[in-house]
Amino acid sequence: MTQPTTIRRVPGPQPRPAELLRTALTLAATGVPVLPLRAGKVPFGNCHQCAHNACGGRPNMKSAGPCRCPGVCHAWAAATTDPAVLTSPAWTAGWQRAAAVAYHPGGAGLTVVDLDNAAAIAWARETLPATRTVKTTRGEHWIYRGTMTSHNAVRPGVDIKSTMSYARYLGPGTGTMAALPDAVRALAAKEPSPAPSMPQAVPVPTWVGSGECPHRTPAYLARGITMAEQRITAASSAVHATVFRTFLAVLSTHGRCGCLTDTHIARLFTAAQAKGETLRHCSDAWTNARTTLGL
Predict the structure, then answer these.
(1) How many CB atoms lie within 10 A of CB 198?
(2) Are the beta carbons of 149 and 141 closer than 8 angstroms?
(3) Is the Cβ–Cβ distance between 10 and 55 less than 8 Å?
(4) Is the four-CA dihedral 192, 193, 198, 200 of positive or negative sign?
(5) Would you tell me how many other CB atoms lie within 10 Å of the CB of residue 1?
(6) Cross-strand pairs, 35
(7) Which H or E run contains 100?
């Protein structure tokens, strides 16, 4: 897959919509799926027609569906390389309100190792092969060729962004892009290290139980996941608490029988992110719910 092209970053005030769109179109022309981010580095929420994922989702989501929505919907799954979509009226309205450009690393055949602080950067320099590096607000993005499942908090200050995730575009970076090493893939297979005074984080999507399934039909689980999405989407306040209580309810019913799949968990996380939750908040809420239930 073609790597992101070199784009000169312009220092100074917040980029204007036209500048963001130009960046997005240039990236898309190299095969990198892009989307706008609003303030807070979060994607735009679903439109009314796509609320509760009633449309069936985007074709590039695991829960693929026939969605033909022209708007900037479905978080990371909205990312596209189609210039006609990027310049459409609905997306133009999105760029007018956007604060940054993001891209779907997995859709471009890439994996981003997000290093959030100096300690994480020092660890990467000692452990991982050198590759293309992009400066971030607090740390660095190390970008590799190759894809894997995205995981949050694989170790203190380190996230992995690839499939079913997005990363903010902060410029072309420096260095030659290397192939995704086994050392990064291995991070996803390990239990993450706990941070002081914080609940232990887990990979996302995560864990499937192994107990005997008491559910007689798939429709029971399907209704439960749909109701959980609706509960999160309908929250007008206390979103953090609503997400936690919803995760708790789903896990209390389905967490021990093994019927939950990555697709179900991704739907819940997508609904929460559409309400402004970060992937890290979702991961923490899921972990806390598991801990509360003793899973």
Answers:
(1) 11
(2) no
(3) no
(4) positive
(5) 14
(6) 102
(7) strand 100-103
What are the per-10-residue average pLDDT scores of the chain (295 residues)? 46 76 96 92 84 67 62 86 93 93 94 95 95 95 94 90 93 95 82 39 41 63 84 80 84 76 84 83 80 71
Amino acid present at 109: G
User: Within the chain, where are the H helices?
Assistant: 17-29, 83-86, 89-97, 118-127, 182-187, 218-233, 239-254, 262-274, 279-293
Please say whether the beta carbons of 175 and 130 come within 8 A.
yes
d(CA 123, CA 133): 14
Q: What distances in angstroms separate CA 140 from CA 11, 50, 125, 146, 238, one per listed residue?
A: 18, 34, 11, 18, 32
Q: Counting Cβ atoms within 10 Å, is residue 99 exposed (0-12), middle (13-18) or buried (19+)?
A: middle
pLDDT tens, 189-218?
744 444 433 333 334 334 444 455 666 567
Closest by alpha carbon to 55, among 233, 218, 204, 208? Answer: 233
Residue 23 confidence (pLDDT): 96
Query: Quick one: pLDDT at residue 288?
Result: 77
Q: Report the pLDDT value the prediction gives residue 117, as an integer from 0 to 100.
A: 94
Q: Is the pTM of this model over 0.85?
A: no
Cis amide bond preceding 205, omega within 30: yes
